[in-house]
Amino acid sequence: MVAGNPHHSQIGRLRPPRHRAGPRARRWWTARAWLAVGGPALLVSGALLAPSALFFPGALFWLAPLTAAALAPALGYALLAPARRCRTHAWEVGESAVYAASGWYWRRRRIVALAGVRDVAVRRGPLQRLYGLATVTVTTGSTAADLRIAGVPEAEARTLAERIRTGVAA
Amino acid sequence: MTVLATADIRRLRYAPLTFWVWGGVLIAAGTVWKILKATGVKPWRLGFVRRLAEAFGGDALWVSVPLALAAMTALGVAGALGLHALTWSRYRLERTAEGGLTVRRGLSGKDAVSIAPDQLCGVALREPLLLRAGGGASVRAVAGGLGNRDQNRTRSVVLPPSPKAEAERVCAGVLGEGEGVDVAGLRGHPRAGLRRRVVAALGWWVLPVVVVLAVLGWLLALPVLLACAAGWALAVTPVALILARDAYRGLGHAVRGRYLVVRSGTFGRETVTLARNAVQAWTFTDTPFALRAGVVTLTAAVPGGEDGYRIRDMSAAEAAEFAEYAAPGIVREFLIDTDA
């Protein structure tokens, strides 16, 4: 069995993809989680609790538990999800198929036959560009066979896309 | 050119076996309400509507409520029969010499859907809950090139609700397999699948309602809500357990000749037969809970129909090898070589 990564050793003889997500990808996921979920949740809670504490302290006894109940999952996501994503995230181009693993709660390992690949593209979002990362998207004739490999260092993304293209041509 | 099925008035008896009998009436009522609202008519100002509402709310609720339900059912059944007659009159399903399909239907008999042989990647035998209870089934072709997902769902229907035996015969005919692909005796799924279905059924249907009612009853000091919570738990738990068990027993998968057979669902039981060489990708999906239970959902990607067909909660230990066996060459190079 594969050493050191219990999250990959469970599906029969399927091994994890070779290339793992790097520390830059982890920083990007962390930034994204705080920007999109953790930060806004904290802001809204602050905006609710601070005026309440200053002007309506009587309301705190019910407002504080409600806010905490809403804040807990958001903070939990921002704290735990990036690390979990980083553990799962990996990719590999083989002789006849491309293999990618992703997800934080639902873990998805997808293996796509190169013969069915129609299009390969490299995309970079504004936040990804800050971290020097890119997303490789693979389009096929079936939406259940399409692939998005996010958080790949830019130079590596270009070679990855090129390798998929040559694999398709071969 | 072989004719696989033609219009048959006796199929009408399967038309009302769907929850849309009630859903359709609700949708129609909603549409009427919207039209009235848009035209500025206020229904409660009309005398007969008010008299009807007063009569309904009168002292004989135990008569008026069942009567209203019966009227709604009758209206829905009439609607279902009418819609079936409109859609499936002059129906004719043909298989061309090359292996493609042509479905003709509609009042004019000129609405036609053609499926080219290279776009056909399988066939799905569909048995929604009520239709299954009535011993019926309908058939959809798993095919690409029929438009977007919604268009595909309407255009790919090759047989309307019919007796199950006929549906099985049409499935075999669509695939061009004389005696049909055997979908009996599929490999069942691990026991953990039953536990997961029971937990999901209780967790989604019983627990939330009971918790909300109980908390409200406690906060508002209304014992009647506590009684409602207990009543809901007692009434719904057995139904949830029966459905969970049915869902688990429905799970199955197998390789039969050139085909991969997958069965799942309880409200929408579906037995899908896919050409093994149409599979383009495999996806293994799990959650921390599935991981602990030792199960994984394996999705076969084909270029047609719903695109992805899931083998839910199969044994994680067997999944990779099954994928390699069912559609060789895709996962092979990512398997750990234990023979060496």
Automatic annotation (TrEMBL), chain A:
Record InterPro entries: YdbS-like_PH
Keyword terms of this UniProt record: Membrane, Transmembrane, Transmembrane helix
Region (Disordered): 1-20
Highest taxon listed in the record's lineage: Bacteria
The protein's name: PH domain-containing protein
YdbS-like PH domain location: 87-163
A Pfam family hit: bPH_2
Entry-linked PANTHER family: TRANSMEMBRANE PROTEIN-RELATED, UPF0699 TRANSMEMBRANE PROTEIN YDBS
Transmembrane parts of this sequence: 33-54, 60-80
Organism per entry: Streptomyces triculaminicus
From TrEMBL, chain B:
Record carries keyword NAD: no
Pfam families cross-referenced by the UniProt entry: bPH_2
Assigned keywords, A-Z: Membrane, Transmembrane, Transmembrane helix
Residues of the YdbS-like PH domain: 248-325
Domain of life of the native organism: Bacteria
InterPro entries xrefs: YdbS-like_PH
TM segment ranges: 12-36, 60-86, 198-218, 224-244
Protein's name according to its UniProt entry: PH domain-containing protein
